[in-house]
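Input record, target 12 of the design panel.
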């Protein structure tokens, strides 16, 4: 989501660019744990495991994770490990934002399970499922593309001076300044349709509002602290939506 870059190494997990078995093992454990926690967040609120939409969603997300990992391993391997930790110098406002944003985003899944399966407050028709896929796939693709061209696409906002932080203007960054957030919009808004819950649209839209807020705060930080970003923002005028904002 940041508009910065440095040269990628050959592999992750080693400062010398050699394959690090320990690093790969750590990635595997992290990946398995993340999928397990994600599955629990989806199925625990539903109260049952025979939820077809839940399994389909988990499969779609898992496929994206695998494709994204393979893609990044090929074009931007250093980013894989960088996104597994919080970098030194993360902005305090971003930590506060994450503390508020994470529960809002996760509540999309919790409410979906409660609504679509456990209590059936306002389940969607399965006919709307393709809408979710049409939101998820382009959003996930744009998110991955943004990560692929931006080795500084860490999970927190900070100025990465130790890595030669400077502006990127290639790929989707030639069109808008924060394309990763645009892709994340698709991810957030796809959840209610893929899991079949009208009520979960509320936290999904709140998540989008939260992303808009972070975009503004991050853009302001980069203008003030990242050399060349102010000039870049004059060349690429829009943060997220060409012609609008």
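The sequence produced for target 12 reads:
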């Amino acid at each position: 989501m940041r508009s910065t870059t440095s040269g990628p190494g050959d592999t992750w997990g080693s400062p010398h660019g050699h394959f690090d078995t320990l690093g790969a093992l750590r990635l595997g454990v992290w990946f398995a744990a993340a999928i397990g926690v994600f599955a629990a967040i989806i199925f625990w609120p539903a109260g049952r495991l025979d939820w077809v939409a839940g399994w389909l969603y988990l499969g779609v997300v898992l496929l994206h994770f695998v494709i994204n990992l393979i893609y990044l391993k090929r074009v931007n391997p250093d980013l894989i490990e960088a996104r597994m930790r919080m970098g030194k110098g993360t902005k305090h406002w971003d930590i506060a934002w994450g503390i508020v944003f994470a529960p809002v985003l996760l509540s999309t899944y919790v409410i979906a399970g409660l609504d679509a399966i456990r209590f059936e407050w306002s389940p969607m028709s399965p006919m709307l499922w393709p809408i979710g896929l049409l939101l998820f796939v382009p959003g996930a693709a744009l998110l991955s593309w943004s990560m692929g061209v931006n080795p500084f696409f860490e999970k927190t906002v900070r100025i990465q001076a130790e890595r030669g932080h400077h502006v990127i203007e290639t790929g989707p960054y030639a069109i808008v300044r924060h394309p990763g957030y645009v892709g994340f919009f698709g991810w957030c808004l796809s959840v209610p349709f893929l899991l079949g819950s009208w009520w979960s649209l509320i936290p999904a839209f709140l998540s989008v509002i939260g992303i808009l807020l972070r975009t503004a705060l991050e853009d302001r930080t980069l203008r003030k602290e990242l050399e060349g970003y102010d000039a870049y923002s004059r060349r690429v005028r829009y943060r997220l939506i060409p012609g609008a904002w």
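Confidence is low (pLDDT under 50) at residues 1-19.
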